[in-house]
Amino acid sequence: MTKKKAIRVGHRGAARRLISKIEEELEKETTQRDEIESLCETLKKKRDILSELDNKILEEIAEENMEAEIEDSDRAVVCDLEKFWNLESLGVSGSDNIKSQSEVVKEYGEKSIILENGKYTAKLPWKPDFLPLPHNMELVKQRTGSVIRRLANKPDLLKMYGDIIMEQERRHFIEKVEETKLPTDRPVHYIPHHPVAKESSTTPIRIVYDCSCKDGRDNPSLNECLESHPPVMNDITGILMRFRAKKYATTSDLEKAFLQIQLDEKDRDATRFLWLSDPYKHIKSANNISLQVRTFRSYMFAIHFERHTSQAL
């Protein structure tokens, strides 16, 4: 694992250098579009390599907080990389046919979101030509088993983790998958998950679902099969004007807002995951655990289009 981590550090450094080079190109008076496109393509390859290395490290992991280490150390790099995935974010003019962000949200809301019995149901924004999602159950079994083995060393954390999943099941955000025959008319895909430390006295951990997980370099992740656009940001001037227009100002927050949006039934099998069949049963052996397939009935926060979904409502 030490060797993989060292290789990963090297690729991460190379990604940062590529980002700096792109920024230098953008500062020039005459920006070379071909040069920037080439640099972006190289960045995409680095992203795939980093993702594959992360998956391999997580499979072998034994240290208690390595997931948090991976997430924290790469957060800045990932944020920087995502700025460069399309030419629009680089300030380079692309095709005149590219739709504005607001048009994308409006079209998605009209075609993919319905209101029925007082609840919104949304479809996943699949790309028209997305590659088939791999049936990656074995990879996710390994990742889930690794998480359970580490949490089993701290029963309190294992119980908290299970409590979160059981609470989501109780509130019908997720559900068990009982059928033994796989559907053939829709994508079936499994999503790994892991704990990340949270600065809270009541809930010290949260569950992170890895929708960017790839089962091999040639297979796509779930996020790569979905449309991705920067979120539509509210105009700050308008926000300030509305804030000053009245005598009183109030703020509010919808509890578990994204989970209140139901996921279309045909897309639910693409959001499967594994957890203990009985989260409260004592684990006698970490190598002999019974896993239950579950799937999301609600929209996942880990899917990178979820902000468009809330804006389209």
Describe the structure in your own words.
This protein has 313 residues and is an alpha+beta fold. The chain folds into two domains: 1-90; 100-313, HIV Type 1 Reverse Transcriptase, Chain A, domain 1 (Roll), CATH 3.10.10.10. It has helices at residues 2-27, 33-60, 66-82, 101-112, 137-151, 155-170, 236-245, 306-312, and strands spanning 113-116, 119-122, 174-176, 193-197, 205-209, 262-263, 272-276, 291-296. The strands form three sheets. Strands 1-2-6 form a three-stranded mixed β-sheet. A three-stranded antiparallel β-sheet has the order 3-8-7. Strands 4-5 form a two-stranded antiparallel ribbon. Strand 1 (113-116) and strand 2 (119-122) form a beta hairpin. The longest helix has 28 residues, at 33-60. It is globular, with a radius of gyration of 21 Å. The termini are far apart.
Any descriptors?
single chain, HIV Type 1 Reverse Transcriptase, Chain A, domain 1, 8 helices, alpha+beta, 2 domains, three-stranded mixed beta sheet, 313 residues
